[in-house]
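hiii so um. not sure if this is the right channel but i have a protein structure encoded as tokens and i wanna go backwards to a sequence. like what aa goes where. can anyone help
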């Protein structure tokens, strides 16, 4: 195990959570659904690539990094999230080209 202990659990363990498949829901600032689908993470627990597949049959990919319990995704959209526990990530997103932004929740799918 690697990482530092935060609030009784290991941040390195939190990063390992990302090697799972997550279902996400992205909301716009007005709380309307912007996007939803799945996201998978590859490579290492602290950095690598992700693949997002959404309800519009569009794939997005990019890079991710994890520092402690903070997750950052870069690519067509920029996401910054907090790994809440082994099954939940919450945060904000911004689509550079469209200027859209909002919040997201992601739940691990077994």
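sure thing!! here u go:
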């Amino acid at each position: 195990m690697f990482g530092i202990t935060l609030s009784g659990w290991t941040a390195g363990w939190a990063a390992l959570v990302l090697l799972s498949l997550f279902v996400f829901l992205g909301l716009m600032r007005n709380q309307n659904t912007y996007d939803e689908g799945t996201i998978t993470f590859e490579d290492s627990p602290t950095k690598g690539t992700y693949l997002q597949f959404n309800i519009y049959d569009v794939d997005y990919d990019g890079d991710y990094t994890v520092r402690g319990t903070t997750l950052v995704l870069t690519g067509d959209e920029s996401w910054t999230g907090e790994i809440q526990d082994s099954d939940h990530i919450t945060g904000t997103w911004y689509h550079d080209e469209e200027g859209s932004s909002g919040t997201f929740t992601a739940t691990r799918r077994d």
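oh and The radius of gyration is 13 Å.
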